[in-house]
Batch of 3 targets.
Target 1
Amino acid sequence: MMRNGLLSPTLTPVREDLSIDTVRFAEHVNWLLEWGCHGVVLFGTTGEAVSFSADERRQALDAIIDLGVPAQKLMVGVGTCSITESASLARHALQSGCRDLLMLPPFFYKNPTDEGLIAHFEALVERIGPYEADLHLYHIPPVAGVGFSVDLVGRLRERIPAIVGIKDSGGDQDNTLALIRAHEGLAVFCGSEPFLLETMRAGGAGCITATANINAAAIRTAYDGWQESDADERQAALTDFRQRIQAFNPVPAMKALLASERQQPVWKNVRPPFWPLPDDRLEALKQELRAGALGIPEVRS
């Protein structure tokens, strides 16, 4: 059960033929856990989830568990536009020993009614069946084009008790704070570490952030020390680091940094429509990080 802490939505390493490199995948997930993440999210936005088929996602989950990744430390992204496909992904994750699921809203048709979204999730949960599951909503309207209003979250929780958390990646901290105030007992995770300290001070659960792929130790230290006297300074350093990464395309940028620092060129690969970060942009990224408060973190596995 992941009701609080630092979680990383992991990058997904791919080979030259664009298939998932499951050995490196397992190594990276375990590295994230070793470097301070309480859990790891598979197949979120950072993991290029919608670029992989349901079969690829199921096979990758099976492979990394077989390679020693603890299933109980995984939150599995199962959101698709299809109720049937999402339910299949969810059942597979639960049968594999994972309890926590991250659920996007159906994202192709824009401006759905709240009633339509409620019907979608009720049908989805019915098809998942009698498994013990902790469901976490994934609010990322800048990307999905569809989100969860504060009111809708309350209505969904009334109808679906298995909903225990939400990742708020909307980029609006006022919305995160409103969710915390409105929904007692809901685990509210901010979706980016610049909001970590304010989220914790308001009673939030923690952070699910992409940048933990390359900066987990520093974010974990800030999470653990949010009540310490230097919390604001730590937060400022994290925010500076995130802003420097954000100036690049974060998924190709973080993969390129891992490829360079680990001396594993395969890490630079992305699935189209992403495109690998050019070498000159990688050097610019390294210069940016060296100029920041945290520098280039240790990312070797």
Target 2
Amino acid sequence: MTKTSVLLVDDEQLNLEILLEYFAEEEDFVLQTADSGESAWACLQDPNQVFSLILLDRMMPGLDGIGLLKRMKSDPRLANIPVIMQTAANSPAQIREGLEAGAYYYLTKPYRRDSLLAIVHAALSDAAARNQLRRQLHQHVNSLQFLDQAEFSIRTIDEAAQLASFIAHACPNPDAVVMGISELLVNGIEHGNLGLSYAEKSRLKQEDRWHDEVAQRAALAENAAKAVRLSYQRSETEIVLRICDEGKGFPWQNYLEIDPQRAFDPNGRGIALARMISFSSISYEGCGNIAVATINRGNGRNGKLST
């Protein structure tokens, strides 16, 4: 079995020793430590080192956590490594700064071992899903750039990943767009059609039972015929995706922005990240069971704008 390589970055030796102790019984992990931002950057620049996850202290002398994170995001080889930011403070402004820099997972010191491992496994699971989506992108033909209008219907998480990869090729900058499409489709399945609440998903993620629960609910007779439907419409100026589920809706207004209060949960940031990274805008219709995502077709960066 392939080991998961994790870089632990903290300027306090005691904190590093505590982290090593927390991971002591996790046989699937290989750990390396760095006691400063500069030494961590040296490790990351070593071509023989490949890290699956970074556990990063925010407050360090010299090159701090935010500075190191910004360097990583500017390096294509490192940009997709998930980063968990450790902080002794939980001020909304600092948390928002870290989230906007790319630290989508947070831990507030001091924290318990189970809280650490829940966030670690959630970050690795999300990264694996994103990497799988990127691989699937290259399985589809470039002729999708000529697609003007289409309707699709799916039921499962696996089908959501396949459809997201397929549709992304009909959009500008597929690598950025695919994540947002997948997020909206998966939300429609798990929260909409299967009725999985935010609190339930948080608990299941912490217990590493989310996939099993989704599979069990999807197999129930009451959910057998439920589908999530996606419509694709392209004009000269924009692409509009409408994703409709059969659920009772949700208070979507609370999820368009990254809420610092949810930054420490293993879930709950997907819609806000999709709006930031993948789409020009996201809005909801009906009771919240219809998501409308727009992609402008002008010149610009990321998935929001075309090449």
Target 3
Amino acid sequence: MTQKVLLGTYTKRDSKGVYSIELDLNEKKLSNLQVEAEVGSPTYLAATENGERLYTVLKNGDKGGLNALKKTDDGSYATTDVFTQEGSSPCYVAYDSKRNFVYTANYHTGEVAVFKTDENGSLTLADSVQHSGKSVHENQKSAHAHYFDLTPDEKYLIACDLGTDEVVTYEVDEEGKLSEVDVISVAPGTGPRHIVFHPNGQFAYLFGELSSDVLALSYNSENGTLSHLQTISSIPEEHTEFNGGAAIRISNDGKYVYASNRGHDSIVVYSVKEDGTLELVEYVPTEGEIPRDFNIDPSGQFVVVGHQDTDNLTLFERDTETGKLSLLQKDVYAPEVVCVVFL
């Protein structure tokens, strides 16, 4: 049995765009790297549940935007619509199957946006909100929206802003119009990058890119508010060189949280306690440089890590009882990988 993995990339060196690779669940190995679509720097991807449609970040010369693709009869992807504007591309894309919306966050402009889409993969801008503000770090001179996605109850949208040290809750109506519901400010210099929610819907885990901290939060689904519970480092005390927090994931059973470190080049593993706080389990070297993204396969047995600078994937087996990772494969070629999505 094989599981298909989609890979988003930069196209600054050798990459052609969106790739796929197969994970053989029985052989426990990655193989058969393929180009799925030639797209300019599709650094983040979102797919429909069946993988028939795909939405990617797009860089096209001096313009940036969003690319919609649809699977063709031969199994490859073809572009159905493109939305671009002058300036930088978004850094995050999410798909809302219930409303048929696509959500984006733009680091450079500090903007979050909603697009309407349909079965044909058309893209129509419905609304956007410009964040404003700054914080204490040299990378926080302006707003830098880095994440914009649904809460698990699908009632709200959460935006993480690295530049303002804020996490903003929004509502979205049937026309795609956004309205702000709540704002939580975190410690100056945290740099909120990504967030994941516990399957029980009561807790969330926010990764600070600049502080290399993971924040455990409680989530109130009645009003969309988040409250701070705990701050825990993602790197050991003895690591004093550069590190930037990257991706964060949670196991399907909610027992373990994983986060990747760029600089320390590791995945940190935490166990989730009954009160939602975290306890360190281990640090695992990722066998590559700048592990910008990784993901857990739907079965919960494997973790695939993509490395931006060393053009390789690493495959780990996950112990579902202890949460620990065991190395299965390294140096699996895949160029400039910055996003890992299981279909």
